[in-house]
Amino acid sequence: MKRFVANALLLSLFAVPALASDHSQSLHLTGPVRVGTAQLSAGAYKVTWTGSGAIVQVTLTQNGKTVATVPAKVVEAKNGHVALGTNAVGGVEVLQVIELDKLNLVLQDAPATGN
User: Fold this and answer.
1) pLDDT tens digit sequence for 47-67
2) Which of 37, 68, 73 is nearest to 56 (CA)?
3) What CA–CA distances, in Å, run from 81 to 54, 72, 84, 86, 98?
4) pTM for this predicted structure
């Protein structure tokens, strides 16, 4: 029994990184944007989302350091690309949507576009 538990634990340790890779994507910001309360500068970032169901937590990291975490709604989509949707609010670009290959992450604290 102990051997079974040890093997199951070992298998789960290898499975977790594999599952996490399905919930992360690299992206590049071409200019500064606000995400939640954080102001992000242009550069390379990794976006990771955790949770199950329609609402998840989105975390943006740069050089291994978390720079922003916000709730988002997952919307299935067949984009075939990575793109960002922003809206200018008070002269500041605010990140509203992260379009990934097979889904969109609609940031929940993003202001409405009014369209």
Assistant:
1) 999 998 889 999 999 999 999
2) 73
3) 21, 19, 10, 16, 10
4) 0.74
